[in-house]
Design a protein that fits this description.
Blueprint: E1 11-14, H1 23-32, E2 37-39, E3 43-45, H2 51-55, E4 68-74, H3 77-90, E5 95-99, H4 104-107, H5 119-132, E6 137-144, H6 151-160, E7 166-172, H7 183-192, E8 197-200, H8 206-216, E9 220-223, H9 225-229, H10 233-241, H11 250-262, H12 270-284, H13 289-299, H14 306-321
Parallel strand pairs: 1-2, 1-9, 2-4, 3-4, 4-5, 5-6, 6-7, 7-8, 8-9
Helix pairs in contact: 1-11, 3-5, 5-6, 11-14, 12-13, 12-14, 13-14
């Protein structure tokens, strides 16, 4: 289910990320490659939803040949099952249930990480999806809602629903993205589960990836923020297991950023294009102390044309990659 490559590198998954992890980013980083699979940012399935219209935003072939799994988020078992069936009709190879989103607008409607409040109900929702489709169903969860008192119960409820594997982001809903991810909880989950476990959270470097694998025993890695800061991270992890060293090339970085800009729909206003570039580059400029020092200057650039804005940012990055 989660195969390693010929060099024993674990299965590498690009995490779903609301906002910055949109199709523009996915297409840009997919052009670089290095990961085995990506997961689309969640598709909300509110009560009284019309699943066909909601499902239309999902294109399973968006990153071909890299597979793109569908992630759905909601709390109505029947609607979630219907949405899963619609995902299959569109060509999904895997469906992931979101039990991790910490947004108050989401949890206030009983979805995302609020499912972790009631393991029994989490089981009902997950099982409804599993029984509705004949493709793998998986689940991504946090370690709890306000605390980890139901951690074991949620893991077992998910496992007993029939999901193929679980991805664990070891922070609670209340934690948000603030405190360090508790990798010890990934290790604990691994000791509890009989199905595969994917580790997620605070993998920003190759050494972090190695440490998570050795400290937790997880079966695969999902990387989100680390790939925003370093879009070559997947290649570097893979190279490590091959006994090699991957050196990012300037031309590849330029192509990555050009691809991001060109993937934006034509109807997007220029100001929005620049703001999206600032958001993406804001992460990239965190990759070293040198670039971190230049980050405020880049963000304060008042250029009104996205192409010129990107060219200016590239001129700031050039010395770092030369």
């Amino acid at each position: 289910m989660l195969p390693k490559d010929a060099n024993n590198c674990p299965f590498l998954i690009l995490a779903p990320m609301e906002g910055v992890g949109d199709s523009c980013f996915r297409k840009a980083i997919a052009a670089l490659g290095g990961f085995d699979e990506a997961v689309r940012d969640f598709i909300r399935v509110p009560k009284n939803a019309h699943v066909k219209s909601l499902a239309s935003v999902y294109d399973p072939h968006e990153l071909a040949p890299i597979p793109l799994a569908a992630q759905i988020m909601g709390s109505d078992p029947e609607l979630m099952a219907a949405m899963a069936q619609e995902m299959v009709r569109l060509g999904a190879h895997r469906i992931d249930l979101n039990c991790g989103c910490p947004s108050n607008t989401v949890t206030g409607r009983g979805a995302g990480s609020s499912l972790l409040k009631e393991p029994g109900y989490l089981h009902i929702v997950a099982k409804a999806i599993v029984q509705a489709v004949d493709i793998p169903v998986t689940l991504k969860m946090r370690s709890g809602y306000s605390d980890i008192s139901l951690f074991r119960e949620n893991l077992l409820a998910a496992q007993e629903s029939g999901v193929r594997y679980i991805t664990l982001h070891p922070r609670t809903k209340v934690d948000g993205y603030g405190p360090p991810a508790r990798w010890d909880l990934i290790a604990e989950a691994k000791s509890i589960l009989s199905i595969p476990l994917v580790g997620n959270g605070d993998i920003l470097t190759v050494q972090h990836a190695i440490d998570m694998l050795s400290q937790t025993g997880c079966d695969a890695l999902m990387i989100g923020r680390g790939s925003l800061i370093n879009p070559f991270l997947f290649h570097q992890i893979r190279a490590h297991f091959a006994g090699q060293r991957y050196q990012p090339r300037w031309d590849d970085l330029v192509c990555y950023l050009d691809r991001y800009l060109s993937a934006m729909p034509e109807e997007i206003p220029e100001k929005t294009r620049i703001n999206k570039l600032k958001q993406l580059l804001g992460f990239l400029f965190k990759s070293s102390d040198e670039l971190q020092a230049l980050r405020p200057t880049m963000l304060q650039n008042q250029q009104k044309d996205a192409r010129f804005f990107l060219d200016h940012a590239l001129s700031m990055l050039a010395n770092h990659y030369s």
